[in-house]
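Minutes, project huddle
Topic: does the predicted pose make sense with FE2/S2 (inorganic) cluster bound?
PN asked that the exact inputs be recorded in the minutes so nobody has to dig through chat later. Recorded below.
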Amino acid sequence: MKQHQYRPDALIEVLHRAQKLFGYLDTNLLLHIAQRLKLPPSRVYGVATFYHFFSLAPKGIHSCVVCLGTACYVKQAAQLLSCLENATGIKAGETTADGQLSLMTARCLGACGIAPTVVFDEQLEGHQTLERVTQRLKSCLSASRP
Ligand code: FES
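Predicted holo structure (C-alpha cells), as shared on screen:
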C-alpha cells in the first residue's frame, strides 16, 4: 500500500499483492486494506468478491478451474464440472477437507478455440472430456500424496 501511496485507485493491485503474500484475503485483511486506503469496507469486499482471481478462504495445494463461458458451456463444460464435483465431493468454490484441491469456475479463460477448457494447477488444457478431466484429477492428486 505504501508503494502505491495508499491511493484508493490502487485497490486491485493491493488485493493482488495481499493475496500473493497471504494466500487468500480474510475479513481482517480486507478491513485493514479498507482502512488504510480510506475506502468503505463494502467497496473492498465488493471488488474482492467480484473477481474470480481473489479468494476469501485458504486455497488447496492444487487448483482446478472449469471454464463455464459460452463456448465451453455449449461443449459440455457443466458436465465436466459435475464430474469433478462428484469425484471430489465438493462444489465449485470449495476446497476439499484435506486441503488438497480447490475447485473453481471462470466465465472465459480466453481460449474459446480449444473449448471446453480446464486449468489444472495453472496449466490451461483444452478439448477436455469426462475421461481426460477424471484422469487429470487423479494424477494431480496422486502427485502430492506419499
Ligand atoms: S468460454 Fe471457455 S475459454 Fe472462452
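Observations noted during the meeting:
- Residues 8-50 form one domain.
- The chain has six helices and five strands.
No decisions taken; revisit at the next huddle.
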